[in-house]
Specification:
CATH superfamily of the largest domain: Ribosomal protein S3, C-terminal domain
Strand order of the largest sheet: 1-2-3-4
Number of domains: 2
Radius of gyration: 19 Å
Strand content: 25-35%
Number of strands: 8
Helix content: 25-40%
Oligomer: single chain
Largest sheet: 4 strands, mixed
Distance between the termini: 42 Å
Length: 224
Amino acid sequence: MGQKVNPVSFRLGGTQNWKSRWFTTKQFQEFLKEDFLIRDFLTKKLAKAGVDRVEIERSANSLEVVVQAARPGLIIGRGGSGIEDLRKEVNSLLSRKLKKPAKNNLRLSVEEVKNAEIRASVVAQNIVEQIEKRMPFRRVLRQSIERVAQSRDVQGVKIMMSGRLDGNEIARREWLRKGSIPLQTIRADIDYAQATAFTTYGTIGIKVWVYKKEDLNKKKEEKK
């Protein structure tokens, strides 16, 4: 039997970093539920902004949420009013779901993602938008692969779709790959994301792997 593991969790502490950074022994369940609610809400709310990561960091008296997006202007709004409105929505969500008073120590910030066209989560969201507009899935696969592979920082890319593709009665799996994807090499910098497209004939699962070149200068600095 083939044993599969998430490429991101497989490389935690190496090429990948944790999306939630905190430690507790007594409130683990509560903090984990809060992180899930915040990340799920922001990912759905800001889908059009091209969200790549939602990082959550906790200290003794503060909760900081950092949203990395390809189009931060859609989140910030005029004069930064969008961030404040979003912070209030997150607070009301947590107080409603967890039945607790709103947090006064919640801070929300937005960062722009560089080279967004080669980020796996952004690529997956773009594919979802095209599939939901009833674009032919093979054309979407080819165009997405070529767009990502054009970057000099990419050594390989693989995209997989599964479900009732083009409305066929029998669900199946289709994929394309360009370059190399060394999933068993821990030092390989592989970005992975999955998304779901909701269509009239069912859901289509999308998985994206992007193998990026190793930054030798960065590794030398880390060794020093």
